[in-house]
């Protein structure tokens, strides 16, 4: 095996209620701990959460098993700026950007790292998930029923499913762009491209822009089908998304999310032309659009 690289995990957090604070601890941090058998640092960027004390306490608790840096924005800056702040603090050779409503199943982190080891031209890797929206290439088939609580028994169903995928050792395949809920990239990519474009505001579609920039710079993007990362939370009340659709922001604030998607689409079009809007996610489709 190649010599293990140090890895920095950047996770922006906005805990505005007890449910979201619980999700950070029981979904993200506990899942990451299942994959923590490597040189690891966690950078938690608190985006001016109302539950500051709870978020800071969870960061201290995670410091018992990993190197943790906790920083807090003085005002709510949004996802993109929070990620950039975390990236600027990261010291790892590999950089993992995750939403706080994700859970890495056992073996998923190793599977994504392995995808980078297999091909030096691959700069960014993403997993498969239960909540990949309309992304067929990052949607895992045969997912368990949605979680009904954050109990150990409920989460174990998804952990076991992800463990079975990891055991298959399926080879990665190239993608045109990757969903931004969980991406692993080489430091060399970040050094070449710089931070996410803050012109996307609070977020949405900035990952497509970064993928376009990476591919134009000569890097490939890949999906690791043996890396499963749960995305989302509990289905609570009337929600327009499907049973397994990820992103708690989309679940809790659907109108706000839709408006930000439209804004991101217009900004993407201004930057790369209208052919970048609705760009196919497969590598051949993206190349056919000129990216």
Question: How would you characterize this protein structure?
Answer:
By secondary structure, the protein is α/β, with parallel strands linked by helices. The chain has a single domain, classed as Spore Coat Polysaccharide Biosynthesis Protein SpsA, Chain A, CATH 3.90.550.10. It has 10 helices and 9 strands. The protein has helices at 18-33, 52-62, 79-89, 108-118, 152-168, 187-193, 206-216, 248-252, 254-272, 283-288; strands at 7-13, 40-46, 67-72, 94-98, 102-104, 122-128, 173-175, 182-186, 220-231. Strands 1, 2, 3, 4, 5, 6, 7, 8 and 9 form a 9-stranded mixed beta sheet that branches. The longest helix has 19 residues, at 254-272. The mean pLDDT is 90.
Topology:
Blueprint: E1 7-13, H1 18-33, E2 40-46, H2 52-62, E3 67-72, H3 79-89, E4 94-98, E5 102-104, H4 108-118, E6 122-128, H5 152-168, E7 173-175, E8 182-186, H6 187-193, H7 206-216, E9 220-231, H8 248-252, H9 254-272, H10 283-288
Helix pairs in contact: 1-2
């Amino acid at each position: 095996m190649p010599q293990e690289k140090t890895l920095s995990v950047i996770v922006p957090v906005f805990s505005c209620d007890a449910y979201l604070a619980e999700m950070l601890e029981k979904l993200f941090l506990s899942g990451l701990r299942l994959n923590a058998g490597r040189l690891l640092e966690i950078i938690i960027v608190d985006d001016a959460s109302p539950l500051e004390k709870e978020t800071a306490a969870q960061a201290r608790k995670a410091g018992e098993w990993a190197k943790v840096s906790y920083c807090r924005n003085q005002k709510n800056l949004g996802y993109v700026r929070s990620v950039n702040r975390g990236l600027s603090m990261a010291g790892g050779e590999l950089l993992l950007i995750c939403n706080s409503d994700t859970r890495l199943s056992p073996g998923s982190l190793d599977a994504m790292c392995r995808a980078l080891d297999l091909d030096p031209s691959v700069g960014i890797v993403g997993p498969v998930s239960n909540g990949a929206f309309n992304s067929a290439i990052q949607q895992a088939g045969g997912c368990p029923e949605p979680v009904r609580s954050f109990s150990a028994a409920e989460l174990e169903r998804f952990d076991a499913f992800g463990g079975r995928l990891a055991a298959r050792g399926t080879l990665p395949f190239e993608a045109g762009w990757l969903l931004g809920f969980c991406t692993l990239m080489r430091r060399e990519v970040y050094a070449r491209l710089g931070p996410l474009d803050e012109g996307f505001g609070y977020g949405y579609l900035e990952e497509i822009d970064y993928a376009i920039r990476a591919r134009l710079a000569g890097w490939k993007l890949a999906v690791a089908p043996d890396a499963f990362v749960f995305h989302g939370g509990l289905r609570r009340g009337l929600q327009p998304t499907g049973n397994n659709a990820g992103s708690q922001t989309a679940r809790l604030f659907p109108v706000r999310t839709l408006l930000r998607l439209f804004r991101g689409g217009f900004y993407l079009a201004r930057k790369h032309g209208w052919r970048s809007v609705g760009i196919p996610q497969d590598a051949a489709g993206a190349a056919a659009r000129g990216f």
